Amino acid sequence: MKCIHGRNEPYACKKCKSFFRIKNDLECHEKTCHPESKSEHDVSNNRTDSITTTIIPTTSVSMTLQSTTSSLLSNEIITDKSSSLPSKYKIMSVERMRLLLAVLLKRISKQERLDELGFGKRLIDEVLYDSLLSAGKDPVVSNGLSELETLTKNLEIFLKWTVPKEHWEHFRKLNKTPEDILETLTAT
Asked: Which Gene Ontology molecular-function terms are recorded (predicted)?
């Protein structure tokens, strides 16, 4: 970090001049300590509105997730950060959920599989829906539900399918939402 930015904590809060090592820590700080001002990180980004990918997870999904989640569980105690945040910050935006889902799918699939599926040509919601169908799962159709609700329910079905059972049960004991689990899996 120091060789790139010239310092160990490159992210600075413009209000109180505190420094942070990770951008996510800065965003969390701004939301909790300075909720009255809308930060530059909260502004909707047009690029994230059009994030698209095409992918169906490969058979090595559970092996990849098992190694990822086991290292997460063995190296740190996972705490529920969202419980300390004000309620208006607990819900993840659709754009962020799509981005993190795309990151997760990209990590757990082989490049050949991505190329074969035409990665980047379809909305991630449709890809997730088709992935669940191909796996014999029953994805949620958006009949009367909002985009966020539909995506969240399908994400939960996807995670329940791909995350090893013992890790899924551990996350549920900690009262983790699908959004929290997605953030945990894509954080490392």
From this structure: zinc ion binding
